[in-house]
Amino acid sequence: MTVRPLGWALLLFLAIAAGTFLLPSHRWDVAVTVWLQHAPQVLDLPAAGLVFLADAEISIPLIVLVGLLLARRDRRRVEGVAWLAAGMLAASAVAFFLKWVLPHPGPPLEFQRMPHRVGLYVPQPFSFPSGHTMRTTFFAVMVLRRTPPAAGALVITVMAALVYLGDHWTSDVLGGLCLGWACAEIARGLRPPA
How far is CA 5 from CA 63, 136, 183, in A? Predict the structure, then answer.
């Protein structure tokens, strides 16, 4: 019996979610955050800019705008872009729902490098999983699958930026990585052949 990528993604997500309830996991989250925050403050603005671009209210409309621009040249691409935007919206909804269900508080204020964020902010009681990481992973799997180094670099950079800024713990971004991967696998399975 073989476990398909969707199964691996979901199994890893469940293991990480279960691990968030263990004390060693929290110590590890704090240690990684402290280690990343030893980086020079000159990284604050680029990290914040990257996280801003991964916000749902920025990334999804940007993808729709690109779709509209592409529609003028090649109407066949519009369906792919619409599928991508819908998938990222669905991943965002899953992350939003789970943040109300899984009791995993995010980093306290003393870890937040830039507490005054720009953009739409909807307060959520918990921080697991990271919606930014879910959307970025979904995008990377769906759009950059032919260039794995670029996909991996994008996802890892967003994950590091989120932890560096104190927006999420490492467990949050790892959970978002696994669920974003699972959402992409589901979307690839549901999408009709072109």
Answer: 26, 18, 11
**Predicted pLDDT at 1:** 39
| DSSP classification of residue 2 | -
Instruction: Check: CB of residue 128 under 8 Å from CB of residue 172.
Output: yes
Q: State pLDDT tens for residues 84-107.
A: 889 999 999 999 999 998 888 889
Q: What is the pLDDT of residue 2?
A: 47
Amino acid occupying residue 94: V
* pLDDT digit string, tens, across residues 170-181: 999 999 999 999
Chain Cα centroid distance, residue 17: 15
Evaluate whether 36 touches 164 at the Cβ level (below 8 Å): yes
Whole-angstrom Cα distance, residue 27 to residue 33? 10
What's the pTM value of the predicted model, to 2 decimals?
A: 0.88
Residue 194 burial by Cβ neighbours in a 10 Å radius (0-12, 13-18, 19+): exposed
Q: What is the distance between the terminal CA atoms of the chain, rounded to a whole angstrom?
A: 30
Contact 24, 170 (CB under 8 A): no
